[in-house]
């Protein structure tokens, strides 16, 4: 029967050629190894920039009180290590029965920018970029369209044919930035403040793109603040020094306002243009303004329902 | 299919590797947490500072059950003192009260601004509508001001005087909508201090002074608006 099976039937050359097959296998193995390296590279990055505990941290809303205490202790230790500053990070929660609202008297604001500076210092912003949550726009008279404003003005203010429009987070009741967040790292709290869990943010910047008021900022690099300039009075959801690669925003200074104090930008305003308060209190100054002044909101047509009003008197 | 085997293998390896890393880190984090000292876990600012609680002033809402801190409106220290230009033989300078000179001089009601004075108060910037010196200053008692009805009012109560003409501003001020403030929005947790009129407005030239912009953030919105592709650095296709 030796003659009945003389040779194997011809098959595909690639199978027949062991050398070539080995090469292809080797090629795929290399690809696989490269894929593995690429797959774990975020982990290696994380290992560089984050501690294991930070990497494993849960979403703020899911933290138990004990875990929160651990997280805050870790963040305070990190601040001491990275910035050489002794800081206190609190976990300020909304005061029941409050909804914070801001109003600015544009007849009075003269664009001097003290609020911008106060925000910069209060919220531990990067010193090199002069970062701040507030932009003051120099506006041509006759429009409330903030896109026509310019932030590059300098020199003596106010200029005769201009008015000045400070813009910061409007703490919208329908916040587009919250809707677009793919990981729910930003949300609206009971007192109306839209907050960010900086440790949950993945830095995709969707929210920054979604905000019609250009109110969000991205930390392109770790903020540089000298130890003696760090504001040690901090809150987890507010002005603690943010890590690199996350989005941040105005929190109405919740580390102050949730303790009953006025926001830093208001206290710094030399013209007294800023008014802040609890809209649920019928006796509050903010209510008086809403009831007695003609108030404007920015980009009303977008339906974002800002908790931030502008008025002239 | 056999060609995919190495890829699947690599994927599996990757998963296993990642899981192993995660497990390792979790255990290390659990090991870490006990020795992390918790200094002040939830030091919120709501520690009750019950010292110095006073009753609400009459300007504040009535009937609020909680005791409220006071809203303090800053007040001028008193009648202004005039610093003397000259010095005595010892090189000392001094300041005198208004009444030092004005009690022995007859008021000249024809002087309506500093421009017509031939001594003292010369060169004073005056830009407050068409009112005259004695519209506000009291010719009978230089250390007080005078209301429109002729009754004197202390310098400390200057806001009463201003409010005669600037009613809308006074109303807005009373409701916290005019004038700067410091302290607390929530008077149950702390006091508030408000500026008075002349903290911001010079009574002789009450227009708020011009200011110079100091602090500027440096971000992309502060770049010039023009987007010049000719001179711009390459920045990808769009």
Computed Rg of chain A = 27 Å
Q: How many distinct beta strands of chain A?
A: 13
Tell the overall outline of chain A: elongated
- Derived structural class of chain A: alpha+beta
Q: Name the chain pair whose interface involves the most residues.
A: A-B, 84 and 68 residues
Helices and strands of chain B: which structural class? alpha+beta
Measured distance between first and last alpha carbons of chain A? 111 Å
| Form type of chain B | extended
Task: Calculate the mean pLDDT score of chain A and round it.
Answer: 91
Calculate the terminal CA-CA distance of chain B, rounded to whole Å: 40 Å
Q: How many helices of chain B does DSSP assign?
A: 6
Tally of individual helices of chain A = 10
Provide mean pLDDT of chain B, rounded: 75
Which segments of chain A are poorly predicted (pLDDT under 50) over 5 or more consecutive residues? none
Q: Which consecutive residue ranges of chain B, at least 5 long each, have pLDDT under 50?
A: 27-63, 234-238
């Amino acid at each position: 029967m030796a003659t009945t099976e003389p040779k194997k039937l011809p098959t595909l050359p690639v199978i027949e050629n062991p050398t070539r097959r080995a090469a292809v296998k080797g090629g795929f193995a290399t690809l696989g190894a490269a894929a593995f390296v690429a797959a774990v590279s975020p982990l290696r990055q994380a290992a560089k920039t984050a501690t294991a505990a930070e990497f494993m941290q849960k979403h703020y809303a899911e933290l138990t009180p004990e875990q929160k205490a651990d997280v805050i202790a870790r963040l305070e230790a990190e601040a001491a290590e990275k910035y050489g500053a002794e800081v206190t990070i609190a976990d300020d929660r909304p005061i029941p029965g409050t909804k914070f609202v801001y109003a600015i008297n544009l007849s009075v604001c003269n664009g001097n920018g003290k609020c911008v500076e106060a925000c910069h210092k209060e919220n531990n912003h990067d010193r090199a970029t002069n970062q701040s949550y507030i932009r003051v726009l120099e506006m041509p008279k006759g429009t409330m369209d903030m896109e026509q404003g310019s932030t590059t003005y300098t020199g003596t203010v106010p200029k005769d044919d201009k008015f000045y429009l400070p813009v910061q987070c409007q703490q919208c009741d329908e916040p587009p930035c919250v809707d677009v967040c793919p990981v729910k790292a930003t949300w609206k709290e009971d007192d109306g403040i839209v907050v960010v869990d900086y440790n949950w943010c993945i830095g995709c910047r969707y929210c920054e793109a979604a905000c019609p008021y250009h109110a969000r900022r991205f930390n392109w690099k770790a903020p540089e603040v000298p130890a003696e300039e760090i504001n040690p009075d901090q809150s987890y959801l507010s002005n603690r020094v943010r890590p690199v690669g996350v989005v941040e925003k105005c929190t109405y200074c919740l580390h102050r306002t949730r303790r009953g104090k006025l926001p830093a930008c208001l206290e710094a305003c030399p013209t007294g243009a800023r008014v802040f308060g609890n809209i649920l209190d019928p006796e509050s100054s903010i209510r008086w303004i809403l009831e007695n002044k003609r108030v404007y909101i920015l980009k009303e047509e977008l339906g974002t329902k800002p908790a931030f009003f502008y008025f002239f008197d | 299919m056999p060609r995919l085997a190495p890829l699947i293998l690599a994927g599996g390896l990757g998963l296993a590797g990642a899981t192993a890393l995660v497990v390792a880190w979790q255990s290390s984090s659990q090991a870490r947490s006990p020795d992390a000292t918790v200094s002040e876990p939830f030091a919120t600012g709501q520690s009750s500072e019950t010292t110095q609680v006073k009753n609400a002033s009459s300007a504040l809402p009535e009937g609020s059950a909680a005791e409220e801190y006071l809203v303090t409106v800053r007040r001028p220290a008193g009648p202004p003192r005039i610093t003397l230009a000259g010095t005595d033989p010892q090189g000392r300078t001094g300041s005198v009260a208004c009444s030092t000179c004005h009690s022995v001089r007859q008021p000249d009601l024809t002087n309506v601004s500093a421009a017509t004075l031939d001594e003292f108060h010369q060169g004073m910037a005056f830009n407050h509508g068409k009112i005259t010196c004695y519209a506000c200053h009291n010719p009978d008692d230089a250390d007080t001001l005078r209301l429109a009805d002729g009754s004197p009012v202390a310098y400390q109560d200057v806001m009463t005087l201003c409010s005669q003409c600037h009613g809308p501003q006074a109303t807005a001020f009373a409701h916290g909508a005019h004038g700067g403030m410091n302290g607390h929005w929530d008077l149950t947790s702390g006091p508030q201090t408000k500026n008075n009129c002349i903290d911001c407005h010079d009574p002789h030239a009450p227009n708020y002074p011009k200011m110079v912009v100091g602090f500027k953030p440096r971000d992309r919105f502060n770049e010039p608006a023009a987007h010049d592709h000719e001179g711009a650095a390459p920045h990808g296709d769009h």
